[in-house]
């Protein structure tokens, strides 16, 4: 069938919206009519080369839609089901899935390969194969994905909001609740208030944190941060350091979460300085694949028993936590409507990313036309 998608042909060039050819789903694959796709910063990392993805590639890994066709062997969904596409697949069989760490599923090893699980492609354009970002390619109005990436949801949940739990909201919320282990009464700092940072604020609030300090260089983020749960706002880590010291009478924060667009090694020690003895720094932000230099006061880590933890997909299990988060949304505890600060047509994707990088929006969503 013919479809329309945003394709990246070369690094540091705009997304090209064009017609593609899409093959039928194969064994344990599903054809999805994508209704909405979140515009996550990770797709821009593919543009800049901070994430290594073979080109050409169809972007998008935060989507929701409707099952259009199923391949042989598909058991979990059927035509007409509404689904969220999880950016981390869950095979249910590997060691990590078996012990409840499906965010580390072995299928994650091929997320940036472009091809599907069997090593072949379902999309083509300009006479050649085109890969899909994170096995998904939700910047296409139709896409073929592994069944392992599909999570069925209730049909009454609006897909243009549900798409957010395919990556950013789940990642941020889990960074606070799972990796950060935020507890009632805790003091929490979130550095970088985009889609993931805003969701970390929500996770901290839902977990019962007393002080929630949002840190962002853009003062325009203050009102949105407060809507999502922040009790205080700072424009820099230095400013946050003074503020947290005052709020906690010198004890410092229990948890500090780094969710900036691109993390660099010189950010780590200031994050460690924000936390108390025995506190936790959560590193969620993506760094260039070759980045290895980090500034860290080793004695402080040992003598004050501080912890630095990495977090992938917020340590969430997609098949359990995606429905769980949507239940929180239905209960009015998780704000998704407020997270979507702009909607775009697919043809306006490059403008959307310009808006995101300039700090004008928290989360943009592409609404596909069919």
Explain what this protein looks like in three dimensions:
With 370 residues, the chain is α/β, with parallel strands linked by helices. It has eleven helices and 18 strands. It has helices spanning 41-48, 95-98, 159-162, 168-179, 195-206, 221-227, 237-247, 268-273, 298-303, 318-330, 349-357, and strands at residues 2-8, 16-22, 29-38, 57-58, 63-70, 82-85, 123-125, 128-132, 142-146, 150-153, 187-191, 211-215, 232-234, 253-258, 275-283, 307-310, 340-344, 363-367. Helix 4 (168-179) crosses helix 5. The chain is globular, with a radius of gyration of 20 Å.
What are the key terms here?
six-stranded parallel beta sheet, 370 residues, 25% helix, single chain
How many strand segments?
18
Question: How much strand content do the residues show?
Answer: 25-35%
Task: Give helix % range.
Answer: 10-25%
Q: Regions with pLDDT < 50 over 5+ consecutive residues? A: none
Secondary-structure element series: EEEHEEEHEEEEHHEHEHEHEHEHEHEHE
Number of helices: 11
- Find the structural class using helix and strand composition: alpha/beta
Largest sheet: 7 strands, mixed
User: Oligomerization state of this entry?
Assistant: single chain
- Inertia-based shape: globular
Rg over C-alpha atoms, rounded to the nearest angstrom: 20 Å
Mean pLDDT metric = 95
Rounded to the nearest angstrom, the distance between the terminal CA atoms is 13 Å
């Amino acid at each position: 069938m013919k479809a329309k998608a945003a394709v990246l042909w070369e690094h540091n060039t705009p997304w090209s919206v064009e017609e593609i050819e899409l093959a039928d789903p194969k064994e344990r694959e599903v054809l999805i009519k994508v209704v909405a796709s979140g515009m996550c910063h990770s797709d821009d990392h593919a543009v800049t080369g901070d994430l290594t993805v073979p080109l050409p590639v169809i972007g998008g890994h935060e989507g929701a839609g409707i099952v259009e066709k199923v391949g042989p062997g598909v058991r979990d969904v059927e035509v007409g089901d509404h689904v969220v596409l999880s950016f981390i697949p869950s095979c249910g069989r590997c060691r990590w899935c078996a012990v409840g760490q499906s965010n580390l599923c072995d299928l994650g090893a091929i997320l940036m390969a472009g091809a599907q699980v069997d090593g072949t492609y379902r999309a083509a354009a300009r006479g050649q194969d085109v890969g899909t970002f994170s096995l998904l390619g939700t910047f296409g109005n139709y896409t073929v994905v592994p069944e392992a990436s599909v999570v069925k949801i209730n049909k009454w949940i609006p897909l243009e909001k549900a798409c957010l739990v395919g990556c950013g909201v789940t990642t941020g919320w889990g960074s606070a609740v799972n990796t950060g282990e935020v507890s009632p009464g805790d003091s929490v700092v979130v550095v970088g208030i985009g889609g993931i940072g805003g969701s970390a604020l929500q996770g901290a609030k839902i977990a019962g944190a007393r002080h929630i300090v949002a840190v962002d260089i853009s003062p325009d983020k203050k009102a949105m941060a407060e809507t999502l749960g922040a009790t205080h706002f700072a424009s820099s880590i230095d400013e946050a350091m003074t503020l947290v010291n005052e709020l906690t009478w010198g004890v410092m924060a229990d948890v500090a979460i780094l969710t900036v667009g691109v993390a660099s090694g010189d950010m780590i020690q200031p994050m460690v300085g924000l936390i108390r003895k025995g506190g936790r720094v959560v590193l969620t932000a993506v760094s260039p694949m070759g980045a290895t230099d980090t500034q860290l006061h080793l004695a402080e880590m040992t003598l004050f028993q501080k912890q630095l933890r990495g977090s992938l997909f917020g340590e969430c299990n997609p098949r359990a936590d995606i429905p769980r988060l949507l239940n929180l949304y239905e209960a009015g505890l998780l704000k998704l409507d407020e997270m979507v600060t702009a909607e775009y047509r697919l043809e306006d994707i490059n403008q959307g990313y310009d808006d995101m990088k300039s700090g004008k929006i928290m989360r943009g969503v592409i609404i596909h036309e069919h």
